[in-house]
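Encode chain A's predicted structure.
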Amino acid sequence: MRWAALLAIVLPAVLCVGAAVLLSAPSGSKASSASAPAANLTCTVKASCGVNELPVLRMSSSGNAHAGTSGGSGYGLMVCCTKISGLSTQCSGTHDVVLSLSGADNAHVASDGSYATRACLSGGDDSAVDCTYAGECPPDYACLATISESTNAHVADCDGVSDYGIEVCCKALADNCPTLSNPGQENQDGDQWGDACDNCPATSTPWLVPSGDADCDGFSSSGEAAIGTDPGDACPDATSDDAWPPDTTNNTIVNILDVAKFRIPFGSCSGDPAYNRRYDLNPNDCINILDVAKLRPYFMLQCTNP
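Encoded structure for chain A:
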């Protein structure tokens, strides 16, 4: 019964993560950054925004529409943008104005700032946000809407059908260290974490490296010593080489086979015959759901040795 409960809780989560990683990875490549927080901004007009999207503007229809602010209008369509790290609709801090509106609801819009009500995008302490207006958005800019004029304008979406001639274009990049100030956004290894918060700044990794992780495999050296994996080796060289903690099968990739390995020791504690410290990934002398959950950030990811 304990194992059935485990599967019911864990499998949907890890399989969902794995599917997302696989769908985002080019054929034949190693999946590495499906959950990377430093992705470019993307925006879509739809009836409701998802949990990982930010409502920036409301529209009365997809074309020839009036607009409203995300919190002050009851219109049924929204401009939903990817909720990258630090992004909000605040008109303060590091921000730029998407459009100014004649009111919070039933409004005309302007790109020249002629109205007092504003729809904004704001980033984290160091993230970059820039909005501009053009006949076609520059590369790496997302089209949020199209407008008929620079002022007193109606709005439409960006789907290529009945659009207006002026595109509202915004670019926002996630703060690569949201909890630490790093104005230059330095990132020498090019992964999704900046040097200020990356404990392996010269080694690109698809996971955040904790403090004290000598081999940059996502687990501290002290944690690896506690469970018996090699703190100086990021990836197994053979099936007998316990090098990477979430890779319980030692085949260099974390998948459903690694989850299945928890079946025997699950629910055991130190002193029980079934207990095996190799599976105590959250070292507390017991193997439970917290240990299996440790696989999730690495599911369908592959390790490599330098």
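The two ends are 42 Å apart (CA to CA).
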